[in-house]
Specification:
Length: about 90
């Protein structure tokens, strides 16, 4: 595995040959995991880490809301339909 360390603008950056890295893992990382590994090669402050967690949470929440809105529109649901679902006995 070839890892190169470079210091640029007082930030430690590392570059990984993706194919070498992926072939050494039993369960290869996906593209998002590789990018996060690169990100975490730098030391984030606790505040920046909290901001990153909030950003990721907001990203996935927005995707879920868009998917729900799409289903809502596709099925032409109304507020009355939602009230019935919420009050339904299971």
């Amino acid at each position: 595995m070839k890892i190169q360390y470079k210091k640029k603008y007082s930030v430690n950056l590392f570059y990984i040959d993706r194919e070498d890295f992926m072939s050494t893992l039993k369960y290869p990382l996906n593209n998002a995991q590789v990018e996060l590994m690169k990100l975490f090669g730098t030391n984030l402050s606790d505040s920046d880490l909290a901001d990153l967690k909030n950003l990721l949470a907001r990203f996935f929440a927005d995707k879920a809301i868009k998917a729900a809105d799409s289903i809502w529109d596709e099925r032409k649901l109304t507020d009355h339909d939602m009230d019935k679902l919420l009050n339904e006995q299971r």
